[in-house]
C-alpha cells in the first residue's frame, strides 16, 4: 500500500466512518420506530395476541418454523399460515391439537404440546395478527 | 509464551474445542432429522437439537474469543494479565452455566424450562439464537463484564497497540449489543427489528473487529512484517466492515414489516459488505508473501490464509448471492440462507479461533513456536477435511435452496413446503455425508494434539 496513505488516515476513516454510519443508523431507526405501528396494525395488538406471542416463544416454535422468513427451515413458514389455512383460526387450533404424541412414522412431525384452549386461541390470534403485517408482499405466494 | 498468565487461555481453548465437538454431533443429528423425520422423536425434537447446535456454536466461539484475548492481550500489552484467577473463575462459571442450560434444553420440555427459570418475570426466551433462559443471559452478562474488566485493566495499565485496542473495542461492542437480547417487545415487528441489533451487529459488526485483531496479531507473529503496515491494513478492514455493515443491517429489514426504504439501503450497503473480506484476503496473502522470516508453524499459517479465503467466500460471496432485495424476495428463509450461514460462520469465526489455537498452543504446551512435523501434518489434514466438507455442505444446501425456491415459490403450480422438502432429500443426504466427513476431520484435528514428536524450534 502506498506510503502516502498513512496509518492515521486509515484510523480516521475507521473512527469517522463508523461514527457517521452509526448515527445515520440511529436516525433511520428512529424513523422506523414511527412507521412500525401502522405497518403492523399495532391497534389490533390485543392482550390475546401478546399472550399468543408468549406461547409461541415458550414452546420454542422458531426452532422448526420460520416466521416472516426468520427461524429454522425445517417446517413451514407461519407468517401467512392464517391465509394458507383459509383465514381460519379454528383450522390452526385444530392442526396443533391433533398432532399425535408419538409423531408420524418416518416423517417430520410436530410435537404434541398439550396446550390449553386459552393458549391455543391466543396463538391463533397471534398468527392471524402476524399475517396482517405489511411485509412488502412477502412471501411470494401462499405456500410461504 | 512471553507471560506466564497467557496460559489461562489453554483452559478456554480446551473448553471451546469440547463444545465444538458437541455442536457437530448435534449438527449430524438435525441433518439426519431432515431426511429421517422421526429420528429421536419425540425424545429430542428438531427444535431442541437445533437449539443445542446453534447455542453450542455461539458459546464455544465466545470461549474461543476469550481464550484468544487472554493469550493476545498480555503479549501486546507487555504485562501479565491483570487477574489470572478471575479468568479461571469465570471460565468455570461460564462452563457450568452453559452446561446446565444445554442439559435444561435436553432434559425437560422447553416450556417447562421457561417455567422453571421464571421466564415470565422478564420474558426473553424463544427467539432464534437467544433461546437461553433469562437467568443464563444474566450470567453471560456477568461473565462478560468480569472478562472485560480483566482485559481492560491489562490493556489500560500496559502498552496500548492498535491490535489490543481494536480487540477491546470489539469485545466491548459484543457486551453492549448483547444487552438488546433483554428487550423483547410485544410487537413482533419491533421484536425482530431489535433482535438484529444483537445478531447482526455481532456477526456483521463487532465480531469482525475481534476477527481482524486476532488475524493481525497472528500475522505479525508468523510473518515478521512490520507492525505499522499490518495495523494500517487492520484499520482499513474494520473501517470498511463497519461502514458497510452498520447500514447493511437493512438487508434483514426487507420483509419483516419495516419501511420499504430498507430495501434500497440494505441492498446497496450489504452489497458492499464483501469488500472488507476481500481486503482481508489480499492482506493475508500479501503479508505471507512479504514475510521476513519462515515461521516453523506452517499449520498456523495455513489456518490464517484459510480464514481470510473462507470468510470472503462464505460471508462475502455467499452473502452477496442473496442480499439484493429483488433476489432476497425469493431466497429469504430458504436453504440458501442455511448455506450462507454454514460457510460464513465456519470461514470467519470457527477458522479464526482455530488459527489462534494453532498459533498459541505450541507456545503454551511446549514453550516452542511450533508442533512437531507429524502433529502439523495431522492438523493440516484436519484443516482440509473440515474445510472441503464445509464447502460441500454449502454447495449441497445451495442446490437444495435453488430447487426449493423453484418448486415452492416460482413454478407455475407451486408445491407446499412439505412436498417441496420431500423433493430435496437427495441434497440433504449428500449434506449429511459431507457432515460425517467434517466430523472425521474434526477427529483428525483433535488427534493432532496427541500426535507427539519433537516440537520445533524457531
Largest sheet of chain A: 2 strands, antiparallel
Instruction: Count interface residues per chain for the largest interface.
Output: A-B, 77 and 81 residues
What's the multimeric state? heterodimer
Largest sheet report of chain B = none
Low-confidence stretches of chain B: none
What integer value in Å does the Rg of chain A equal? 22 Å
Q: What proportion strand of chain B?
A: under 5%
Mean pLDDT of chain A: 97
Q: Count the helices of chain B. How many? A: 16
Overall SS class of chain A: mainly alpha
* Count of extended strands of chain A: 2
CATH architecture of the largest domain in chain A: Orthogonal Bundle
What's the quick description here?
Chain A contains five helices and two strands, in the order ααββααα. Chain A is mainly α and 144 residues long.
What descriptive keywords fit this protein?
heterodimer; A: 144 residues; mainly alpha; Cytochrome Bc1 Complex, Chain D, domain 2; 2 domains; two-stranded antiparallel sheet; 5 helices; 3% strand; elongated; B: 458 residues; 0% strand; globular
Written overview of the protein:
- Chain A is 51% helix and 3% strand.
- With 144 residues, chain A is an all-alpha fold.
- A two-stranded antiparallel sheet of chain A has the order 1-2.
- The termini of chain A are far apart.
- The mean pLDDT of chain A is 97.
- Chain B is an all-alpha fold and 458 residues long.
- Chain B has a domain at 1-160.
- The radius of gyration of chain B is 22 Å and the shape is globular.
- Classes of the chains: A mainly alpha (144), B mainly alpha (458).
What is this structure's SSE topology?
The complex is a heterodimer of chains A (144) and B (458).
Chain A: H1 7-39, H2 47-58, E1 66-67, E2 70-71, H3 81-84, H4 89-97, H5 117-131
Antiparallel strand pairs in A: 1-2
Helix pairs in contact in A: 2-5, 4-5
Chain B: H1 8-33, H2 46-77, H3 84-107, H4 110-116, H5 134-156, H6 162-178, H7 188-223, H8 227-248, H9 261-271, H10 274-289, H11 298-320, H12 325-331, H13 335-366, H14 373-410, H15 417-423, H16 425-448
Amino acid at each position: 500500500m502506498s506510503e502516502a496513505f498513512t496509518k492515521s488516515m486509515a484510523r480516521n476513516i475507521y473512527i469517522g466512518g463508523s461514527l457517521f454510519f452509526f448515527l445515520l443508523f440511529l436516525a433511520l431507526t428512529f424513523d422506523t420506530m414511527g412507521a412500525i405501528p401502522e405497518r403492523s396494525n399495532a391497534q389490533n395488538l390485543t392482550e390475546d395476541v401478546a399472550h399468543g406471542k408468549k406461547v409461541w416463544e415458550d414452546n420454542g416454535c422458531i426452532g422448526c418454523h420460520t416466521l416472516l422468513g426468520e427461524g429454522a427451515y425445517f417446517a413451514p413458514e407461519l407468517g401467512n399460515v392464517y391465509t394458507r389455512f383459509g383465514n381460519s383460526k379454528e383450522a390452526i387450533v385444530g392442526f396443533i391439537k391433533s398432532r399425535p404424541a408419538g409423531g408420524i412414522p418416518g416423517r417430520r412431525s410436530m410435537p404434541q404440546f398439550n396446550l390449553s384452549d386459552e393458549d391455543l386461541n391466543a396463538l391463533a390470534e397471534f398468527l392471524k395478527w402476524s399475517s396482517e403485517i405489511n411485509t412488502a408482499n412477502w412471501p411470494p405466494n401462499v405456500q410461504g | 509464551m512471553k507471560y506466564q498468565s497467557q496460559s489461562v487461555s489453554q483452559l478456554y481453548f480446551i473448553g471451546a474445542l469440547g463444545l465444538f465437538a458437541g455442536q457437530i454431533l448435534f449438527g449430524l443429528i438435525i441433518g439426519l432429522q431432515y431426511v429421517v423425520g422421526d429420528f429421536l422423536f419425540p425424545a429430542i425434537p428438531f427444535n431442541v437439537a437445533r437449539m443445542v447446535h446453534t447455542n453450542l456454536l455461539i458459546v464455544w466461539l465466545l470461549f474461543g474469543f476469550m481464550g484468544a484475548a487472554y493469550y493476545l492481550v498480555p503479549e501486546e500489552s507487555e504485562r501479565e494479565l491483570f487477574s489470572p484467577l478471575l479468568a479461571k473463575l469465570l471460565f468455570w462459571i461460564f462452563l457450568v452455566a452453559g452446561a446446565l442450560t444445554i442439559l435444561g434444553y435436553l432434559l425437560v420440555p422447553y416450556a417447562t424450562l421457561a417455567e422453571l427459570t421464571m421466564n415470565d418475570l422478564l420474558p426473553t426466551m424463544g427467539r432464534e439464537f437467544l433461546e437461553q433462559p433469562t437467568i443464563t443471559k444474566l450470567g453471560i452478562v456477568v461473565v462478560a463484564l468480569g472478562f472485560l474488566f480483566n482485559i481492560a485493566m491489562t490493556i489500560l495499565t500496559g502498552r496500548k497497540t492498535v491490535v489490543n485496542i481494536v480487540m477491546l473495542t470489539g469485545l466491548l461492542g459484543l457486551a453492549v449489543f448483547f444487552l438488546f437480547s433483554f428487550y423483547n417487545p410485544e410487537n413482533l415487528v419491533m421484536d425482530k427489528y431489535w433482535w438484529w441489533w444483537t445478531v447482526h451487529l455481532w456477526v456483521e459488526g463487532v465480531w469482525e473487529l475481534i476477527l481482524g485483531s486476532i488475524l493481525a496479531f497472528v500475522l505479525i507473529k508468523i510473518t515478521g512484517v512490520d507492525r505499522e503496515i499490518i495495523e494500517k491494513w487492520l484499520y482499513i478492514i474494520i473501517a470498511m466492515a463497519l461502514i458497510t455493515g452498520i447500514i447493511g443491517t437493512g438487508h434483514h429489514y426487507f420483509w419483516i414489516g419495516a419501511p420499504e426504504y430498507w430495501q434500497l439501503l440494505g441492498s446497496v450497503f450489504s452489497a458492499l459488505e464483501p469488500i472488507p473480506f476481500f481486503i482481508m484476503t489480499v492482506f493475508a496473502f500479501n503479508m505471507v508473501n512479504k514475510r521476513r522470516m519462515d515461521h516453523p508453524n506452517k499449520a498456523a499459517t495455513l489456518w490464517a490464509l484459510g480464514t481470510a479465503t473462507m470468510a470472503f467466500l462464505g460471508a462475502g460471496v455467499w452473502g452477496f448471492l442473496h442480499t439484493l432485495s429483488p433476489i432476497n424476495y425469493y431466497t429469504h428463509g430458504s436453504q440458501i440462507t442455511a448455506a450462507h450461514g454454514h460457510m460464513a460462520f465456519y470461514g470467519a469465526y470457527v477458522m479464526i479461533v482455530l488459527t489462534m489455537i494453532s498459533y498459541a498452543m505450541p507456545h503454551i504446551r511446549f514453550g516452542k513456536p511450533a508442533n512437531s512435523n507429524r502433529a502439523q501434518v495431522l492438523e493440516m489434514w484436519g484443516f482440509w477435511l473440515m474445510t472441503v466438507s464445509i464447502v460441500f455442505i454449502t454447495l449441497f444446501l445451495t442446490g437444495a435452496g435453488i430447487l426449493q425456491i423453484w418448486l415452492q415459490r416460482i413454478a407455475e403450480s407451486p408445491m407446499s413446503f412439505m412436498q417441496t422438502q420431500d423433493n430435496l432429500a437427495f441434497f440433504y443426504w449428500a449434506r449429511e455425508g459431507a457432515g460425517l466427513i467434517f466430523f472425521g476431520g474434526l477427529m483428525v484435528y483433535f488427534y493432532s494434539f496427541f500426535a507427539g514428536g519433537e516440537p520445533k524450534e524457531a
